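TICKET #2291
ISSUE: user wants both folds in one file
ATTACHMENT 1:
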Amino acid sequence: MTRPLDVRDLTPGDLPDCGWSGSALHLDSVARELVRAEAGEVDYLVVCTSSGSPIAIGGVDFAKLPGAGYLYQLGVRPAMQRRGVGTLLVRALEDRIRRRGLARSELCYERHTSGNGVFYRGLGYLAYGTVVEGWEQAGPDGTPEWYETTCVQMRRDLTAPAA
């Protein structure tokens, strides 16, 4: 028997249970995104087990790209990967994009994580370029350091049937 999963807006109260998604610096970034969610610039979702435990989080930014929702900070608890949880999260974020009257979803993933490309292609995303992205992350000693990487840009037409 499988228990149903719940997809809802992430709240600040969920953050203490999301340590699996990244460092304290990452969770601070997510907390800042929740402020943007209050302003209507982004939607940030969480997938929870029936007990309320967060197993996936991710956002859609409506301000980054004209005419599209931009998926970002997507993560699934490692023990729950390859069980359809990431697909559930992405589809819920795409629904949020459609509700805003937009017909395109975009995202990017780090080029060296080829498994992510396979996952997104399986959901109907098509690569169209690369871009250098950067963000602060916790270094080996826990202090913030700048990280840069090449990311593959992908998009999906949300008017087309899901893959």
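ATTACHMENT 2:
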Amino acid sequence: MEQITEFFISYTPWVITYGLIIAGLAGAFIPVIPSHLIILLGGVSHYFMLRPDSGLGIVSFVVMGLLLVGSQIFETMSGSMGSKWFGGTKWGTFGAMTGLMVGLFFAPYGFILGPLIGALAFEKLFGKQSLKEATSSGVGSAVGTLTGLLMRLIVAFVMSAYLLVDIYLLK
């Protein structure tokens, strides 16, 4: 019985840490799941379970927190920035953000189609743009949203790699 207890005490922190990192990486492919936060929670739980031997410090959490915040800001703004970059007006930008919010309910296709349709509709209805200009704004919104999702994946892998390198190599 004592051996079983010792086994669980020594391996549980690692199972939880790796489980949260893997869940965060998997969540990076599903925009509704807060993947970066899950990875950060993996580091925090690792730190609190193995405090003196965790290999993590304040710098680790500051770096991962900055990556999390930067990625969230970029991901949130990318659809509207894409619309603006492709020649959209403030209506296209607002439409892209509105379309993304509505698209959340129609995952996974809503993440791409929502900003595209939102930017197109708002440009046409409120911005009084021609169909060509409205379409350009909508395509820009979709490109921006895809760029945001790609950045989300990259940051999730960077955060996971940084956490593991910090645990094992930067003690």
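RESOLUTION: both attachments delivered.
EXTRA DETAIL ON ATTACHMENT 2: Residues 115 and 171 are 44 Å apart (CA to CA).
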